[in-house]
């Protein structure tokens, strides 16, 4: 059974349980498997040698998640070829694709944790009660060491965009 963490996060003020370990700066980034479409999966190794900004959102079809993904799409255009910006949610891959097309998202790679919740459990962001991934940010260097982590205490809050982008810029 995976580790559970209670009392560390809320959804609209109500306590939620996060499944998985708390990742810390300096940790080796855990591997994961997520879907890039309905049939094909990718893992951390698929982005080897790149700085990775991983933006985790519960669902692209909500206001804060929409804003977060749009903001990182704008930033991704300025971060250079050695950086990949991944947005991970439990939305189905075709829903992610539809949303990106409608929103004009073309720099961020959307990946789906719907099938196995591998990312959510590995990074300690799977919400036990609703099976969505908790809003969070991870910056991982080219050697797969975690350099920045932000777990939000309240799911409906925005992350610290500036701090995440600065963490990436310090690595390139």
Structure overview:
The chain has helices at residues 63-79, 93-103, 118-122, 161-169, and strands at residues 4-11, 14-19, 33-35, 41-43, 51-56, 83-89, 109-112, 126-127, 136-140, 146-151. With 172 residues, the chain is an alpha+beta fold. A five-stranded mixed sheet has the order 7-6-5-9-10. Strands 1-2-8 form a three-stranded antiparallel sheet. A two-stranded antiparallel sheet has the order 3-4. α1 links the parallel β5 (51-56) and β6. α1 (63-79) runs parallel beside α4. The N and C termini lie far apart (38 Å).
Keywords:
single chain; 172 residues; alpha+beta; 10 strands; 29% strand
Number of strands: 10
Give helix % range: 10-25%
Number of helices, where a helix is a run of at least 4 consecutive DSSP H or I residues: 4
Distance between the termini: 38 Å
Radius of gyration: 15 Å
User: Shape, please?
Assistant: globular
Order of neighbouring strands in the sheet with most strands: 7-6-5-9-10
Q: Gist?
A:
This protein is α+β, with helices and mostly antiparallel strands.
Topology:
Layout: E1 4-11, E2 14-19, E3 33-35, E4 41-43, E5 51-56, H1 63-79, E6 83-89, H2 93-103, E7 109-112, H3 118-122, E8 126-127, E9 136-140, E10 146-151, H4 161-169
Parallel strand pairs: 5-6, 6-7
Antiparallel strand pairs: 1-2, 2-8, 3-4, 5-9, 9-10
């Amino acid at each position: 059974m995976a580790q559970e963490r209670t009392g560390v996060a809320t959804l609209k003020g109500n306590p939620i349980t996060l499944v998985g370990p708390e990742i810390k700066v300096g940790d080796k980034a855990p591997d994961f498997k997520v879907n890039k479409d309905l049939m094909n999966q990718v893992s951390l190794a698929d982005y080897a040698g790149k700085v990775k900004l991983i933006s985790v959102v519960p669902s692209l079809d909500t206001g804060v998640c929409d804003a977060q993904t749009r903001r990182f799409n704008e930033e991704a255009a300025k971060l250079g070829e050695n950086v990949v910006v991944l947005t991970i949610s439990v939305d189905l891959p075709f829903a992610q694709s539809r949303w990106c097309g409608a929103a004009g998202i073309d720099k961020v790679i959307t990946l789906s944790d719907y099938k196995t919740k591998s990312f959510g459990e590995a990074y300690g962001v799977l919400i036990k009660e609703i099976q969505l991934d908790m809003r969070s940010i991870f910056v991982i260097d080219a050697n797969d060491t975690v350099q920045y982590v932000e777990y939000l205490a309240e799911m409906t809050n925005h992350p610290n965009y500036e701090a995440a982008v600065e963490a990436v810029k310090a690595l390139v």
